[in-house]
Specification:
The protein is an alpha+beta fold. It is built from 4 helices and 3 strands; from the N terminus they run E-E-E-H-H-H-H.
């Protein structure tokens, strides 16, 4: 399900800007809560993945690398969710999935 949230206008210096955040609801996990993964968070995850600098199952290292290269925060719950729903997220965000031979 795709949705939008209109945030109140932000005053930056003398300029007023309004923001719209687009998010994607992928579903409800076993814990019964909804998880929202933005395209920016997924892009951050795949950027670390494609860099080849760490094993993606080493969540502490992924979080450490993420803090060095990005202002977007990824939590362990989000990382678990991305890993578990990777194919759904690839489809949702238009990524081409590479299948191994």
């Amino acid at each position: 399900m795709k949705g939008e949230i209109d945030l109140p206008a932000l005053i930056v210096g003398a300029k007023i800007m309004s923001m719209t955040i687009v998010f994607h609801q992928i579903g409800v996990n076993k814990g019964g809560y909804k998880m929202y993964i933005s395209r920016a968070k997924f892009n951050t995850y795949t950027g670390i993945q494609m860099s080849g600098k760490t094993n993606m199952f080493d969540l502490d290292e992924v979080i450490r690398l993420n803090r060095k290269i990005s202002e977007i925060e990824l939590t362990k719950k989000e990382l678990h969710y991305i890993m578990k729903n990777y194919n759904k997220l690839c489809t949702r965000f238009g990524y081409v999935k590479v299948q191994s031979i």
